[in-house]
Design goal:
The complex is a heterotrimer of chains A (295), B (426) and C (289). Chain A contains 13 helices and no strands. Chain A has 295 residues and is mainly alpha-helical. With 426 residues, chain B is of the alpha/beta class. In chain B, strands 7, 8, 9, 10, 11 and 13 form a six-stranded mixed β-sheet that branches. Chain B has a three-stranded antiparallel β-sheet with strand order 3-12-6, covered by helices on one side. Chain B has a two-stranded parallel ribbon with strand order 1-2. In chain B, strand 1, helix 2 and strand 2 form a beta-alpha-beta unit. In chain B, helix 9 packs across helix 10. In chain C, strands 1-2 form a two-stranded antiparallel sheet. In chain C, strand 1 and strand 2 form a beta hairpin. In chain C, helix 3 packs parallel to helix 6 and helix 3 packs antiparallel against helix 9. The two termini of chain C are 36 Å apart. Classes of the chains: A mainly alpha (295), B alpha/beta (426), C mainly alpha (289).
Amino acid sequence: MNLQKARNVLGNYVFVIPAALLFFTFSLYPFFKVFQLSITNWDGISPNMNYIGLANFKDLFFDNPTFWLSMKNAFYVTFLALAIQNLLALFLALICDRDIRGGNVYRVIFYLPPVLSGIVVGLIWNWIYDGNYGLLNHFLSFIGLGDLSRAWLSDSKTALICVAIIHMWKGFGWGFVILLAGLQSIPRDLYEAARVDGANSWVVFKNITAPLMIPVFVLVSILTILGTMQIFDIIIATTGGGPGYHTEVPITRIVSTMIGSSKFGYACAMGVTFGLILLAISMVQIRVSKAMRQV
Amino acid sequence: MPIFIAAFALAGCGSKNVADPNTVTVWHWMSDRDEAFLELARRFEAETQIKVRFELYAPSEAYAQRVKASAQTNTLPDVYGVLGEKRDFASFINSGYVADLTQALNAADAAGSVWKDGVFEKALSVNEFLPENEYSVKPGIYGVPIDVTTIQMVYNKSNYAKAGLDPEKPPVTWDEFVAHTRVLKEKGIPRMVSGFGEIWMIEALATNFAMNAMGEEKVFDTFRGKVPYTDPDWVRVLGLFKQMADEGMLVEGTVTMVNKTAEQTFANERATYAFNGSWGINVYKGMNPELKYGAMLPPSLVTSRPMKIWGGAGSSFVVNAKSPNAENAMKFLRWLTGPEAQAYLSKETVNLPSSKTALKDVPPVLAEFADDMQNATHPNVYPVHESPVVTEAFNKGIQSILIGEKTPEQIAQEVQRIKEKESKKK
Amino acid sequence: MSVFNPASGEVNYERVKKMTVSFFSHCFLISVSATCLFPLWWAFASSLKTQQTVFNDLSLFPKVPQWENYLFAWTKANFSLYFLNSLIYTVTVVIGVIVIASMAAYAFSRLEFPGKNALFLILISTMMIPIPGSFIALYVLLNKLHLVDTRLGYILPQINGGLALGIFLLKTFFDDLPKELEDSARIDGCGRFRVYWHIALPLARPALAVLAIFNILAVWNEYLLAMLVLSRKELMPLQRGLMVFQGAHITQYPLLMAGIVITILPVLVVYLLLQKHIIKGITAGAVKG
């Protein structure tokens, strides 16, 4: 490589060096530390740490049904989020993409749930779902469906889905913002050309909007999966993981292992396993999206 | 670009603060008491010229993280609290982060009074390690309590009067309790609430019932593995929860309720009974000063045995073993647990004092709780502990019983199975 | 133009369709908006009630609004001190993330260098691996770097936190930008940096606005890292102020709600200003021009 080319490549590196520096310091190092801790039986306090090989992982995979149950719960909520929350966000973004009256106001309003503090979200939804004085039960009686009233967050059949609803309500604002930004980047002349050709809204969406939006869709789905699988604050504020294990999710399991049973090393093993599963899912998604773009 | 650099420059400045070596630094998590603590620090400094600096880190989860992280870098303050269970406390001590206070506690001051004598034994024993404890900690007392709490029950006197029950005669036995709840049910008055979403509360009530039903020793023997959870006594205890569910005793949603919501519910008279801690008095006072209520013990199954409740130290402080200021720190803690500071703290925060002398000045409802202290025990003073995995299965199992998903027999079998699995691992 | 033409007796179906769609769209928007506005309104109304009435009084607006709660909340939570801190942290972190992430994203999108794909993969994969339990490692690291209880020690990890998403988001947008503009600039003799700074970055304005919005919210609401890393009150962010109302046992709800409303307002204002950048036609105009 001659000097000119070397200087050129070096110049390219300069663009990524600040990011790489911060990343290696504040992400990679802690990550390796956690990896290291996952093969110990450390309790989080003692200066002594014993390496126990893969014993934590072995126990996790073969002897820890509650962890995998929590994964199942998280997958369930994530599936709902992908299907319903993102569809809602897309729908709203499409509506707001056109020039409708009060478009700007709506944008701010839809962003309110993510902005609201977790405390307020917890208080409000606890009230909505309350078994005696809750708004949902009031509403059901009002429209004559009073038989359906129940303590929504304590009922084994409805607890998880109710928590999922809270999450989706809080989360659609993110998807909405990103999808809207994506939609607004599509050149308008493409739409005009299609209209001139007499295409209706569905055809326009199918042939122009959707293909151009694929990378954004992938981004939003990956973010949705990552964000939803890591659901935690909402659970703690409403059901604490109960009743029984019905609303336990991976992060609540990791936290209760770390703090409740002081098994820091084991909790790190759980974290590493969880992370690798999420990584695998995201990689698959990216692969699929690359394939779709070639079509 | 220039703005960026300027902001960064601004961000970079703020030189490191070198702590005054003669100041006693205290880390705490009790937001409600921050002002009271600052006032106490002022008073102490006025008396002794020793500066005390209180730093608040809340909520308690964030506090615990900070303490654990600081322990790893040897940057713990002079005085702090170890939040967690006995085994965490033991680990802190064995790692050399906590000073042994036994000598200081046994020392007499200029006036001849011994520190230890002024503090409630039960509150101190929560911080004590006895000879031959299961954690191999050198026997001694390693922390001091700054207040005392009990966890028992309260009942709404107005609701009792409304239902035609005698407000001064709360139920003592389980059968009386069931009878009273039936009367209330007939009158359409909601019965019991508690923060069962926080599963340690289930554990507290369940072990109260268990120790009453079969005696402390049998419970400890179960922890030791000598008695199975499928023993009829345990099934009987689990059956109480089934009866609670069958009789509809619990307010809707109790199974997953956080304690703060349960406190609101009781304060707003939407429940007649609450299983809660003595700190609740302060909460109820703030939400409904007119509330007419009294304290009671959980109803007992067996009258020949006492009903034991959880009680003892509410919050405790320890001294950092590596602190250069240990002597002053201990002086401060001695003062903080003394009659003067305790009377002030107790009044300001409506909590039970850990100082015996300060007890005479507490308001009447608190006094009812104080009376029940004689029945108190606490997991930290048990000679043997159950594995947290088993305890979790037990508590969650009771939640399943309460929603009618599983029967007491099923849960007993499940818990025993998990117990056997955990024992093999050791 | 009306729906019905009396003269010819025709019903303008196109018009009817448009109006129905518009009507239902608006109904839908309004109902979703209502659910979003309700909690904020409840928080606001609660902030004007008293501790005794906050859960009993279900009125949408209290008869005797306690406006002084806002004054109490402001002083008790020491907001004047913490507001400035939060402002400093937010500005530096957001600018840091935008500059560093966009540079890196541009490189991943448009430039070539050995190890590019591997590095990109590693960078965004950390976004996908949550590591609860990393707080101890982080603290030990900051301690070694003498950054505990410093502003820098609080800012740098947060910039890092925003990088993975930022790089991923921006690379997605950069990838889709038409290359013609950059190519013509290169032909005109512009170096990499100028192409990045003057052409690519302005075109990615919607994405930058999104990134800014996300990070502003994250920094503004941050408190766990502050509790871990900072000690001196002078350095604490806003959320520390709110903690005062959330005791281990007693939560002073009206004051807490007042505090929350105070902290939410600036975010909403900034969001209102920023989302104006998420407007259409930037790319189109640039290509045409």
